[in-house]
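User: Hi! I have a protein structure encoded as tokens and I'd like to know what sequence might fold into it. I'm fairly new to this, so please keep things simple.
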């Protein structure tokens, strides 16, 4: 099945991302973001943005999900993520971190606004040129 199909699994991930967004700590921007990352073992790592009075200390939802998965021993280049579902388009920093672990064809689903269809991208669409050492 092509990976751009809005399957029941993708819809479930998008719901999980939307629920995670409700737990965001965003008292400064009031922009709540959630992420649900399907991992190689079939489990899901969730993230929400966590802001700080020192703005630079803020962490995006996507990287919260990625780093939690890494800390759980479930994410590495040998255990790449399978699908990322998010409630907003990822920033370039998060895309670069994704590229550390995932191939260019990783599916990224972005939940639509109320009544809109989710959008599908591949990692390479959003970050065609990655930084590599
Ligand atoms: Zn980000």
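Assistant: Happy to help. Inverse folding works backwards from shape to sequence: for each of the 133 positions I chose a residue that suits the local structure. Here it is:
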């Amino acid at each position: 099945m092509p990976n751009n199909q809005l399957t029941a699994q993708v819809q479930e991930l998008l719901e999980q991302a939307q629920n995670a967004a409700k737990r965001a700590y965003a008292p400064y921007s009031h922009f709540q973001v959630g992420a649900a990352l399907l991992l190689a073992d079939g489990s899901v790592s969730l993230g929400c943005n966590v802001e700080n009075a020192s703005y630079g200390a803020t962490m995006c939802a996507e990287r919260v999900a990625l780093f939690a998965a890494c800390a759980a021993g479930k994410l590495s280049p040998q255990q790449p993520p399978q699908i990322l579902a998010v409630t907003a388009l990822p920033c370039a920093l998060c895309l670069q971190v994704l590229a550390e672990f995932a191939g260019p064809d990783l599916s990224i689903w972005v939940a639509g606004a109320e009544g809109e269809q989710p959008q599908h991208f591949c990692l390479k669409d959003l970050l065609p040129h990655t930084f590599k050492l």
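A useful reference point when you look it over: The first helix runs from residue 8 to 21. Feel free to ask if any position seems puzzling.
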